[in-house]
Amino acid sequence: MVSWRHGEPIDGNCPASAYIEDMMEKSTSMRTLPLRERQRIAAEDGAKAIAEYKAAGIAIRKNMARLRALRLAREAEEAAPARRQRKKTI
Fold first, then answer.
1. Per-residue model confidence as pLDDT tens digits over 61-72
2. Do 76 and 42 share a structural domain?
């Protein structure tokens, strides 16, 4: 084959052609796997992502409940002495 630019033959020893061949091998690596294998891998990755998402949501809700209980206990302690003082002054 002759290149359009210089009229030189294009051979496999050109660094650009080696780069292109390497990129083609990388891009076709997923195509070489059978369709069922790719689907299985995608399903496993999806299941793992969903499990992580749900676990993070559970942890957030537990922390929110813990913080809410602490806040309510603190507010109850702050409100209790004020009620007692009012009763004493009457």
1. 999 999 999 999
2. yes
What is the CB-side half-sphere exposure of residue 88 using CA atoms within 13 A? 6
Helix (H/G/I), strand (E/B), else coil: 2: strand
Q: Domain residues for 6?
A: 1-32
Same structural domain for residues 14 and 25? Answer: yes
Give the number of C-alpha atoms closer than 13 A to the C-alpha of residue 13, restricted to the C-beta side.
Answer: 2
27 and 71 within one domain: no
Contacts within 8 Å (CB) and 24+ apart, 5-10: none
Separation of CA 65 from chain center:
25
